[in-house]
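seq:
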Amino acid sequence: MNAAATASECRVERVSIVELIDKVRQTTAISDDLFAIIVIEATAFPRIHARFGYRRAGQLLDSLRSRFQQALRPVDEIVQTGDQTFVAIIRQLKNPGHAILAGKKFLRICEPEGLPLLNKHAPLQGHAGIALYPAHGVDPADLLQQAQIALEVAKESGKDLVTADDDSVRYLKDGWEMRDELAHAVRDSDLELHYQPKIDLQTNEICGVEALMRWFSPTWGQVPPARFFAVAEGTDLLAPMTRYALNAALRCAVLWRRDGNDIGIAVNLPASLLLDAELVDMIRSLLSIWNIPASLLTLEITESSIMTDVEASFATMNRLKELGARISIDDFGTGFSSFSYFQSIPADELKIDRTFVTGMVTNPADRHLVETMLNLAHRFGMTVVAEGIEDEATLTALRDAGCDVGQGFHIARPMPQVKFDAWLDARIMEQLVAQQDDHP
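struct:
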C-alpha cells in the first residue's frame, strides 16, 4: 500500500466520516433515536507487519475489514480511517448498553478465533472507544473526538473498551492538560521545594531535612505531589524535575553551611530515574557546581522501585555511594521485597513507612513490626528514620524502641525555605536556652 496514497485517503475519509455523522444526526433528530460512534483500533498491526510482512498483514487487514462489514446491521455503517483504525456508526439504539455490546462484538472479531489468517501466537489486539449521541455531544466532530479520546483511555489503561462518560476519560483529559502546564512550570522554574526537618530522637537535635516538591497550578491550584508525579511519569519531565529539586536543595544546604549549620538534605529519586544512565553524572555535576560534601546529600529511593530491577538498581546505588552520597530506602515495608536482600543492599538508611508508625502506639502488631525493622536495620549498620510522627506518644515510643531519627507533623510540617530558616533559628535558640538552664 502506497504510504502517500494511504495518508490522502485517510484525510478524505476523516472529512467524510464527520459529514456522515452529521447526516445521521439530522435523521436522528427527527426520529429521536440514539446512535453511537465507535472507534476501533487494531493496535498490534505494526508488529504483525514486522513479523509476517506487508503482504500477509494486508491480507489480514482485508479480512478484518470484511468481517467488520459482515457484523453490521443494514442501518449501520463502518469506515476505515487509517491503516488500523475504523469508525462505526451504530444507529437506532434503545439504550447505551447496546452500543457496548456492539463494541465488544467488533473486538471479538479481532481475536484469533475471529481472524483465521492470524497466527495464534501473535494475536491481534483491539481497543475501542464509544461516544453516544446526544449524551456525549451533538456536534459531529466533537462526537468523533469524544470517541477517539475514549479509545486513547482504553489503550493507556489496558482496557478493551471505554465509553466517553467513563470517569477515567475525564481523569486522562485533565492529565493531558496538566502535563502541558507542568512542562511550562518545569521550564519556567515555577516549582517549589518545601523542607521538613528530621530530628535525632535521642538528642532532640535537628540532624537533617527532606526536600519535598510542591506545585501550585494556575488552573488546578495546589496539586498533590502524587498527582503531578503520576502525570510526569512516562514523560521526559522527570529528569528536569529531579535536577531542579537537587539544584535547589543543594543551594539551600550551601546557605545553611555558610551560617554554621551542616544539615544533611534528602531528595527523592523517581523510580524510573534509578535506571537512567545519566543520573550519576548529573548528581556528580551538581555536587561539583555547589562544592558541597557529597555526604550531606541523601538520595531517597522507594523499596518498590528497587525491586523493578534489583541488579541494575544496586549497580546505580553503588555508583552513587562511590560519589559519597548517602542512600535511603524509603517507604520500607510497603513493597514486595524479601528481608534476604539486606545482606547486599548498598544503603545507609532505612525509612519506616508512616502506615506502621502511626499505629504503633495503639496496635501491638504495628509496634512489633517497627521494632523488628529497627533491629534488622541496625544489625546491618543502617540508620533508621521513622516518618509520620504525629503525636508525642508515638515519638516517645520510637525513642524508647531505639529509633535513630524522626520526621512528621508533630515535629514540623514541610515549609518553604524562608519559613524553614525561621524555624531552624528558633529551634537552635531554644536548644541554647535549654543548655544554659541545664548549666547555670
